[in-house]
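ZP: hey, is the iron/sulfur cluster complex queued? I don't see it on the tracker
AM: it wasn't, my bad. submitting now with these inputs:
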Amino acid sequence: MDVKIAKTAGFCWGVRRTVDKVMEVADQHRAPVVTLGPIIHNPQAVARFSEKGVGTVMGIGEVADGTTVVVRTHGAVREELERAEARGLEVVDGTCPYVKYPQAMAQRLSREGYHIVIVGDANHAEIKGVISYSEQPCTVVKPGGPVPEIKAKKVAVIAQTTCIGAEFERVVGVLALRHKEVRAVNTICNDTEERQADARALASEVDAVVVVGGKNSANTRHLAEICRAIQPRTWHVETEAELEPAWFDGCRVVGLSAGASTPDWVVEGVASWLRALR
Ligand code: SF4
């Protein structure tokens, strides 16, 4: 079967940078190395790191003295970094610069008296990190969810880096009619927009779409939603082991898109399986 792979499928710039950093630290350090939370949202990549001796902890409380801690692409909660510093642990910051931007804006604008509104998933590690930089209480609006009443004259709206542009626009629009001053800071990552545009174009050209990436990866799930809205025969899988031949009955061309945290070798595994299908 013909397989059309999206130009942007696989690791984004930020993930590649962090993964390279972890590999470099693992090669150079004799001391144990751990990542603060799974380094990226891809179980297959995390398994490869653990083969290299890089462990994962969920908090600084779990880290033994003398261990090097790598901060993941999504960033970390500020208090955790302060705890690491107080203990004298070596910290290597792998936070993507595009994630550092909403963290910095949350801090700066909350200091300037704005009530911070974040469009994103409150349970996502990136958003927990961003919230921790705001120096005042802030509000998280879930994409597609209601925009609550906020008692503040000035609000500043920022977005999860993987937020769909239309959702950011919707929340800014609702708030603009309610508050005297609304400051919108578009913190959506360009990679996400390009990847989503690419996936949209791909879904309209093929008979079915496979989106590859961790089930725990927000940007991969968004890609699958975008493709499914255009091409109902869209499947989100982590590896080729989940694919079923019957899903592709009558298909001539299958499109393949992948999240920003999906390693190239996982994308290639799925592509090879599809190419071999008759
Ligand atoms: S998708 Fe964008 S924000 Fe997220 S890690 Fe990649 S480059 Fe950074």
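AM: back. Residues 13-95 form a domain with the Rossmann fold fold (CATH 3.40.50.11270).
ZP: great, adding it to the tracker
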